[in-house]
Amino acid sequence: MNLASQIKAAAWREHLAGARDRALPEGARRHAFNQIDVDGPDEDPVKTLETVLGGAVPDHLAAELHSAHEGLAHAQSRAERRGRHLAALAARAGHATLAELVAAGGRDVHTTARLLETLATEGHQLHPCARTRLGWDRHDRERYDLEAARPIRIRLIADRAGVLERSGQDFRDHPMLRGLDLPDPVLPVHPWQLEHRILPGHRDLFDTGRLQVLDATVPAWPTAAIRTLAGHTAPGFLKLALGIHITSTRRDISPATALLGPRLSALLGALHRIGDNGTEHQHRIVTDVSGAWLPGSRDLTALARSPLTAIEPEGLVYVPATALTATSPVTGMSLAAEYARWSGDPDRWIRAYARRFAHPVLTKAEAGIGLEAHLQNSIIAMRGPDPVFPVSRDLGGARIHLPTLPWDLELPQGSPVNAASMDQVRSKVAYTLFQNHFAALVAVLERDLGLDGAAFWDDLADELNGRLSRAEREAYLAPRQPTKALLTMRLHPGKEIETPVDNPLARAHDHPTLDRHVKALASPASAWIYDPAGVRAHLEFLRDRLGHTVLYAMKACANPAVLAAAVAAADGIECASGGELAAARAAGARRLAFSGPAKTPADLAAAAACDVPVWMHAESVRELDALAAAGFAGPVALRVNRGRALPGTHQMAGAVTPFGIDESAVAAAVDRALGLGLDLVGFHLHAVSNCLEAEAYARHVRDSVEWSQGAARGRFDLRYVNVGGGLGSDPRGARIDVPALAEGLRGLATGGAELVFEPGRYAAAPAGWYVAEVVDLKTMRGQAFALVRGGTHHFRLPAAWGYSHPFRIVPGPRPGPVWSDVEVRVCGELCTPRDVLNGGQFVPSIAVGDRLVFADAGAYGWEISHDRFLAHPGPQQVVIG
């Protein structure tokens, strides 16, 4: 887009002067977060904005727009020459796309990344003033801007008297300076900054010899950040104070940033991982290794960054994310579209790309580190057309919530990095990762390849919803998101202005009518509320993503409405008792599986007489004998305790448990089953409960299939491998990453055997809520207690597992005292100190009569509770949807 079109798009996105109340600009295409593309003539940008505002544009903004317009025109003419050169290179090499040329090229990773970054001619895609360069004339842009034709000679200032302060390593040890004869510590400075800001502003330091400008220089190239330069003869990056007005502000570097960069980089570099299903270590950081500054000055300040060559493994291409949205001079489509089309499946490509960034960035955010994950600060390591791992750079724009950090960090006084709350951390990520980064990629793929953007956002929302805590869901999946109103802010310099935009990731965290049902409960309220439609949706999602048989484990939740929904959505029902078998058959199940370690003769007789197909999971040789005696003629699978323990809440196999047949006895059990004439079809290998790690679970599935094939080979026809349940849905909101699990199973060969999953918790947990009304508030030895109608005899899981289940408050009438800003322990009505639902949660306010809603509680809640203790009345059962 030209600058006039960018102004129209920004005005629409920011709802400037009521823009969204008017018709969409002519030739505009809608995208996520109220972003639009506008086709239109290259008009005077000031007049365009005057039309939007219905009045005059302030002088300062008119100057910025004129600079941006002139700078963009100049840059585009220079970029066209470079584009023709790249297109000619591709033609001579026989490559149809720039992506293929880059993958086949022999240049070092630094040169390749720098050249790709020069494609980003338009700059920040959401900022109309992206090419503003107030302070530079045409000659300066020729010499120092992104499209520079020859390296910039970075100057070096020797700190002869030790007047500068430092953080991290000595600059002289950086690869770009190594080898120079530098007896004194030095500060690298931009040549324009030296001439126009440093020497005029700090003459006394040079006149007295405390600082000295050296003859030695360091050749480097500007990146899209302009003041960050990449080494020409040696790899690495130097971020330098520049002192001109770019986009929205004067670009220098604060001493606080120079101090913090190496400190934070060292901490992140030493951190192997923070959660994320064991894949966090795949996220790389281009670390700040050196910082130096003159106290009280933003001119004499610099940072040094590690080179890309410090990142392993080798043999990859490092593509700046800004280049992905730029137009390839070879094909005329975006570089992202070239990669996505080359991959053979653009839908899968963008989903894989998004997953590479989303998981580590969101995981670090929950650890208190909100990375500025927009396009300009992101790099993707590519192998051919495939994204391998993400790289982040420039920690100066991060937001850090010190109380949440997993280690101690001291921030400089007044540092803008210091986040006052986790909301600020999450807002930083939501804006930079989703609105700035992913939205830009999806938009160009919609334009170039016809990508179904709505489907992408729906799938991403489903994936995130399965792994986010409730607080994260409320931050990232809300119907509206704040966006930086960049153009509006230029009308009001110095003010941070946000405007709400529609969020394509929006998901209802609770059923839309839940609060109405909570408020309608008779007082004092204690109730279970279920959403059968939610259960059905989760099971359908699993069947679609996994592509294999899904049986609902009704032990997780046997509410009749939930069971009916599972019968309709799953391939069948897994039962663990004669009672469950009868209930599932009565509910209309088309297929049953029968598990459980202590089946009685009556259970087996009922299974043998069942008029619905039953797959029997035999727990022992004794059970095989009993099955034959009962006349069971259906398929039989041996339950086996084998393999290594999986991460999860309860180990069912790979540990000493009473479940199944010991692996050493399998051969004898196979012989016995065949000798009895039973229809032996395979194995049941349920191993764990509540596994949240997709990678580990995928290994379990692959290992189970391989082991089953070996155990059956030459003895019977393997037709059935049941890997059990255990797909995690943590009571605190985290869920196993099903798309990642499906990706981990891609290409799995079962040899014709049916592969079966038995989820219960995954489908039921998010579709059930426990509600308990506060009947008393008291303080005991400084601890505040909220006592509720109900407790662990209705909802036993928190006591059984020893955790605090999060809750939210639906306020009641509150006729009495209201406690504010207090941490309360939530306990029930039983005569035991273990009747605790939450051991301590901070609440803004709470009063008697309020109703506490415990979400993600629908699995193993009422089913495992000891409701007969003390003969309290049971909870109300409510079905919604």
From TrEMBL:
What InterPro entries would the database entry show?
Answer: Aerobactin_biosyn_IucA/IucC_N, Ala_racemase/Decarboxylase_C, De-COase2_N, IucA/IucC-like_C, LucA/IucC-like, Orn/DAP/Arg_de-COase, PLP-binding_barrel
Pathway field: Siderophore biosynthesis
Tell me which residues make up the Orn/DAP/Arg decarboxylase 2 N-terminal domain. Answer: 537-765
Domain (Aerobactin siderophore biosynthesis IucA/IucC N-terminal): residue spans on this chain = 116-308
Q: Which residues form the Aerobactin siderophore biosynthesis IucA/IucC-like C-terminal domain?
A: 348-496
Q: Which PANTHER family match?
A: L-2,3-DIAMINOPROPANOATE--CITRATE LIGASE (PTHR34384)
Q: Which family does it belong to?
A: Belongs to the IucA/IucC family.
Q: Tell me what this protein is called.
A: Diaminopimelate decarboxylase
Protein species of origin? Glycomyces niveus
